[in-house]
Amino acid sequence: MAPQTKIRTKMPRHEWSEAHAPDTMPLLMHLHRAQGLAFAQAQGVWARHGLTPAEFDVLATLRNSPPPFELTPSQLQASVIITSGGLTKVMRQLEDRNLVTRSQTDFDQRVKPIKLSRKGKGLVEKAMAELAASSDAWIKSRLGKEEIGLLTALLEKITDADDSDAA
After folding, report:
1. Are 91 and 100 in contact (CB under 8 A)?
2. Could you tell me the mean pLDDT of each successive run of 10 residues in the chain, 167 residues long?
3. Which of 37, 40, 53, 155 holds its CA 20 to 30 A away from the CA of 130?
């Protein structure tokens, strides 16, 4: 039987950074760690479905748009966290796997809308369902219903701040 690796349950203290902002640095460090744990959880789901994070982001963004699940490259670029060059590469990969299609519009031959294919829609819906279920189970194994509501409300208060407040 292979030895088990001890999982770190507490974050190491960062005395130097905490000295600069003792009230907020521990919060920011825990937010960063929580985001990393959530991302690691998601990566396993994406990998099981043969997707990279960028591919999932594009497919989920298209699926989230109104039927027929189609956006222009500019609309898609505004919604994903990928550079335009990176988006072009991802689009080619998704198109090669028949997960999206591209066509020209009748009114502007330069614009090639990106549409989620039936195959892409099925794949992203399966991946999203698995991701939602695993994330739900992971969070609920650590927090109660009231804690989830409180944490959600507090994070919403931070993230819904005006852009001018974030500067």
Report:
1. yes
2. 45 60 85 94 96 96 96 91 89 96 71 92 98 96 97 93 56
3. 155
